[in-house]
Amino acid sequence: MSLSQLIENCRSNDTKAQGELYKLFSSKLFSVCLKYSRNYAEAEDNLQDAFLTIFDNIKQYKGKGSFEGWLRRITVNTVLQRYRNEKVFDIVSEHAADEVELEIDEHQVPIEYLLKIIQELPDRYRLVFNLYVLDGYSHKEIAIMLDINLGTSKSNLARARQILKENIENHKATQRLQSL
């Protein structure tokens, strides 16, 4: 069955087609959820919520642009909506902090460790970091998406980078000590 036929069947609430669509895209969308979530279990919940939203809104997909891109946008927005509802941005300094340089040598810092420390960031820092660094959104776009001020986006990114830098430096120091 073609993707366009699968989409059409999902528009008719065909549960078999919905299952096929889930099988086809769940692993890619799960990686998006994992990036924005605090942990694996929360990522699973976010994925389920995203697919519910996708199936509820699939009639709105007009066939223009990438379907996978449309799915990804819905997934990111679903996850962000959860955090907006939790009011994770209430207590935030509005001043923009200095830029922190963050160098990552993938030979010294395993990707699993990097994902872990990103997931452990406080919500407001993790979301801004992922949107800006990993997905390429501007601070203006992030401010609109998260309903925060531009300065809040910039200061949250700087703080996220500072925390990650400290964790990476600690990891490298630990690795050096263990190799002695």
From TrEMBL:
Alphabetically ordered keywords of this record: Sigma factor, Transcription, Transcription regulation
Residues in coiled coil: none
All copies of domain RNA polymerase sigma-70 region, residue ranges: 21-87
InterPro entries xref list: RNA_pol_sigma-70-like, RNA_pol_sigma-70_dom, RNA_pol_sigma70_r2, RNA_pol_sigma70_r4_t2, RNA_pol_sigma_r2, RNA_pol_sigma_r3/r4-like, WH-like_DNA-bd_sf
Membrane-crossing residue ranges in chain numbering: none
Domain RNA polymerase sigma factor 70 region 4 type stretches: 112-162
Pfam family, one: Sigma70_r4_2
The keyword Transcription appears for this protein: yes
Family designation: Belongs to the sigma-70 factor family. ECF subfamily.
PANTHER family: RNA POLYMERASE ECF-TYPE SIGMA FACTO, RNA POLYMERASE SIGMA-70 FACTOR ECF SUBFAMILY
The protein's name: RNA polymerase sigma factor
Organism expressing this protein natively: Gelatiniphilus marinus
UniProt lineage: Bacteria, Pseudomonadati, Bacteroidota, Flavobacteriia, Flavobacteriales
